[in-house]
Amino acid sequence: xxxxxxxxxxxxxxxxxxxxxxxxxxxxxxxxxxxxxxxxxxxxxxxxxxxxxxxxxxxxxxxxxxxxxxxxxxxxxxxxxxxxxxxxxxxxxxxxxxxxxxxxxxxxxxxxxxxxxxxxxxxxxxxxxxxxxxxxxxxxxxxxxxxxxxxxxxxxxxxxxxxxxxxxxxxxxxxxxxxxxxxxxxxxxxxxxxxxxxxxxxxxxxxxxxxxxxxxxxxxxxxx
Length: 224
Fold this sequence. Notes:
Layout: H1 7-14, E1 24-29, E2 32-38, H2 43-54, E3 65-67, E4 71-74, E5 96-97, E6 112-115, E7 128-129, E8 133-136, H3 143-157, H4 165-174, E9 186-192, H5 194-201, E10 217-223
Antiparallel strand pairs: 1-2, 1-10, 2-9, 3-4, 4-8, 5-7, 6-8, 6-9
């Protein structure tokens, strides 16, 4: 990763961003358009994402990491002009975003937008990448499987965890990736174009999970 700037400097960068409630975003891709809404309850991630959209930082980047029945990931600035076969995923913008993890409210159900990050060994606070994000696909779980994940999650946290009826219904009907809960910041969700996410997560990839045929973000814009 590139050298990090201070958190205070990062805050100065994003304070100029207007904080629009329920900010909507459209990602135009070579596979179709994806509409998202950013959560107001994760303002650091929301404002940073808005800032990068305004600066056109996502335009022409790739969905460089795609894993079927798991997620699609983009936002690596090194992917803009990457030649076929180049391994991607280490590019960033030189700062991190403080974690805003709220697993009791925002879980990794299908279609949510979340921030990628470096591993706990070098990033124990679970701070997010400045630019890399992923959209969850996952799979549908049985109640028994979900209970196993809940038990493992409680062991990891060292305290009891309660899944609401709505969360249980989401994982057992819509699907998702419950094992990521509590480890990554979820800061938005798809409101249109989930079929496009499905199309992307089904593309053929190489051994590094990069699509054989580039899936490119043409541009990203804020919408009303």
